[in-house]
Amino acid sequence: MRNAKIAFVFLFAALIVVGQVLAQTDPGVQSGSRGTGATIINPANDPNGFTAFFNDGLNRFQEVETVSNSANTGLGPRFNSNQCSSCHAQPAVGGSGAAVNPQFEFTSNGVAPGSTTPYFVTANGPTLEARFPFFFNSNGTANTSSPNGGVEDLFTVTGRSDAGSCSLPQPSFAAAQAANNIIFRIPTPTFGAGLIENLDESTLLLNQANNLNNNLGIAGTFNHNGNDSTISRFGWKAQNKSLHIFAGEAYNVEMGISNELFPQDRPLPGEDGNGNSGLTGLPSNCLNLSGTGYPEDTSNPKSTPNAAVLDDVSAFANFMRFLAPPPTGSVVLNGQQVSASTITAGSQLFSSIGCATCHNPSPGTTQVSNFVPALSGVPVPAFSDIEIHFMGTGLADNVSQGGAGGDQFRTAPLWGLGQRIFLLHDGRTTNLITAIQDHASHGSEASIVEENFFNLNSTQQQEVLDFLRSL
Amino acid sequence: MPFPHTSLLLAFASFVAAPTWAQSTSPQNTPPNGGDFSNNLQPVTKVPSGVILVKGAWSSASDSVTPVPEGGSVANNIFSNPYFGMSYPLPQDWVEKYKGPPPSDSGRYVLLQLSPAETFKGSARGTILVTAEDLFFTPIPARSAEELVNYSKDNLQADYKLEMSPAHTTIGERTFTFFAYWSPVAELHWYVLATDIRCHAVEIVMTSRDTKLLSSLVLDLNRMRLPAEAGSTPSDAGTPVCIKDYARDENMVARTDPVFTEHRFNPVPVRIIVDKEGKVKHIHFLSAFPDQAKAITDALAQWRFKPYKRDGQLREVETGIMFGRAAHRPRSQTVSATVE
Which of A178, A407, A440 sits opposite B41 (nearest CB)? Predict the structure, then answer.
């Protein structure tokens, strides 16, 4: 009898061990250097000298902005951060949010001394922007008939010595949480963005047409630019047409710096009178805080060298445009290097079960570039179709941008995924398996593919995860 | 000399009080309520979770009585779709875990998605997907379910291998085109069965690693109830005649273009039923923003068609009109034919 008990315990323990071995695991963020963050430009083949523009953009991307009285002014009066690279940091300048969230220190390190750290900003959580899907009624309930969706900047310049008498309230994030009226976004990485920008429209349309031949329930569409009707392609909902627009909007919305594309300081969505707030815009003592007039970021005709003539937004756009795609790399799982054959198998499985229908490994080859030869006629291993898809109730954020509705999102490019920390549009998870699970919900185009993934055996699932972390 | 002393005291008091007043009157401490701001940490109602309240281009219809293709539902383990006249008792231990996405602007419907329930005892799991391809709008060069299947077969991705060429089979007294392919890498098999029902190619796609399971699911489809095939019984005289591209000048008496108030650039596929007198009696938007639907509805109210006769009888006509830009075609072929 005693022997039987011992055997049972041994068997039980063995089963637990086997279970752990068989269970699939996200290999996690790959720490080895892959060379991400380099430029795509070959300096030996740069007839127009754009390498200087890349380097200049890289420098400006890392400049810390102040409100006034410095070389880099214009910050605020509302902002999410004071430096592009503080949000676009992982694994290199231009990427997504880093492991340590700089926003957590802003109220204590002098960046936003008069602000309160919002409840969702944590030291090691994702770097976030917040939006309220709906305006509030005067009684504090969200008015679901009055969509908002604009960025609610987390901090204000209140209390800064370079901000004069400007004193602004922060939106009440706690009240928004109480009303379940708040959603989040993390920074999109910008590596390889110049290749996406340089994909011909007809290439994307043809991909879309060919993709309709699937037995997975997938049928995406495109978001369009309201001015010229062409396909827009940057941002979580593909709401931005070009890298210039992307940079100009971020400079204005995330850092509060008016520029040649967005020439006014930006009040909050309701601060300008929307949502029956009764407000009439930013108070006069919060305008022109830099003292330079508007826009705060302009071209600099008298500057030298050539690159310095550009305004910041153009410099940022050039930096992102000339960032090389993130290189793939080897994968370490539980301290062991994953074999190349496993990565290959995972790649094949990724395609076979339907992931590649949206996460298109190569949506095309770029058109001829007038910038640099490195952007001309090259494949774009973005793992995205640049389409927007219905992602269902599980991922819906009830924010509409351009033609994208509350549950439509651009297929997130997966290049660089191996070194990304926070996943999905709101950074809700760091685990690939959870991210895959969250693709399925009511109304999602990806439910069948998600199920296909979990219908693979454990080894196959692990191969897919290993492959994804090789990107 | 009390005055100077008092003045100094007042001045000092003012100096001290100023920062205090500045704080107390600061908007930081008194944010307005409404718009972006709320002080209410216990609101009466919350925004419901898991509900899509802000929709982009979405499906809608001019009335809630006339069945629409996406209008199926599962009740008592039976999937019923009044538009297609389909009734499908779910296989034992299979459930509708998630509803599908709304109709696409290219004319694709996900009618039903099934997964094994917790009680499922099989060795390998799988999925059942029921879709409909609107043959009025599909960019795929296909005029029928059979052509759609053949197109799929001819354009299989390199990941897949053909397991069975398209062939006719009968399910529920109805002809289906059946083909199968599989992924050697994933060891997943796809069984695809397609049939024509009312201007659509309805496809049933079953996926699993277990071909025995798939075969049993195909056999189980015989419990499905489907409408009689077009023209095979007099009963179909009561349903509208499906005619692709019917809204042509030669069929029309009056036509007014919609006046859009906003510039949008999405395809707006609209399916209409024209009554026996030539008036538009039902409008179904597969994908449209509300302002687009309103403008198109206003315009269609003024449209008049010539009454349509078949075999000497006045008949209702069902057709599709694409407003806005149409989706790209995967091939240069064009298709224009009557679909029924």
Answer: A178
Q: Could you report the per-residue pLDDT of A165-200, keeping only the tens digit for each?
A: 999 999 999 999 999 999 999 999 999 999 999 999
For A440, name the nearest residue in chain B, comparing CA atoms only.
B98
What is the end-to-end Cα distance of chain B in Å, rounded?
108
The two tokens of residue A273 are 């009178």
Give the integer Cα–Cα distance in Å for B186 and A449: 12
DSSP assigned state of A125: S
Whether chain B has a CB inside 8 Å of the CB on A146: the answer is: no
Strand boundaries in A230-324, DSSP class E = none
Relative to beta strand B78-81, strand B308-310 is unpaired
Ranges A250-264, A320-334, A346-360, B115-129: which has the least confidence: B115-129
Of A65, A106, A76, nearest to A286 (Cα)? A76
In this complex, the residue of A168, A205, A398 whose CB is nearest that of residue B54 is A398
Residue B223 CA to residue A20 CA, distance in Å, equals 42
The pTM of this model reads 0.92
Indicate the DSSP class of residue B34. Answer: B
ipTM of the complex: 0.91
Confidence of residue A274 (pLDDT cuts 50, 70, 90): confident
Contact criterion met (CB below 8 Å) for B152 and B179: yes
Q: Which residues of A292-314 are buried (b: 16+ CB within 10 A; e: fewer)?
A: eeebbbbeeeeeeeebeebbbbb
- A145 part of contact set with chain B, CB < 8 Å: no
Decide if B155 and A213 are in contact by the 8 Å CB cutoff: yes
pLDDT tens across B39-92, in order?
A: 899 999 999 999 999 999 999 999 999 999 999 999 999 999 999 999 999 999
pLDDT above 70: residue B329: no
Of the two residues A454 and B326, the one the predictor is more confident about is: A454
Which amino acid, one-letter code, is at A282? L
Please, what is the average pLDDT of chain A? 94
Cβ-Cβ contacts under 8 Å, B203 against chain A? 215
Q: Is the pLDDT of residue B229 over 90?
A: no
Query: Looking at chain B from residue 213 to 252, which residues have their Cβ under 8 Å from any Cβ of chain A?
Result: none
Q: Which residues contact A195 (CB under 8 A, 6 or more apart)?
A: A40, A325, A366, A375, A378, A380, A382
For residue A142, the chain B residues in CB contact (below 8 A) are: 43, 45-47
CA A28 centroid distance within chain? 19
Q: How distant, in Å, are the alpha carbons of B24, B75, B272 from that of B236?
A: 77, 26, 18
Q: Which two tokens stand for residue A15?
A: 């089963």
The DSSP code sequence of B35-92 is BTB---SS-SS-PPTT---S-SSEEEES-SSS--TT--EEETTEEEETTTTEEEEPPT
Question: How many residues comprise chain A?
Answer: 471
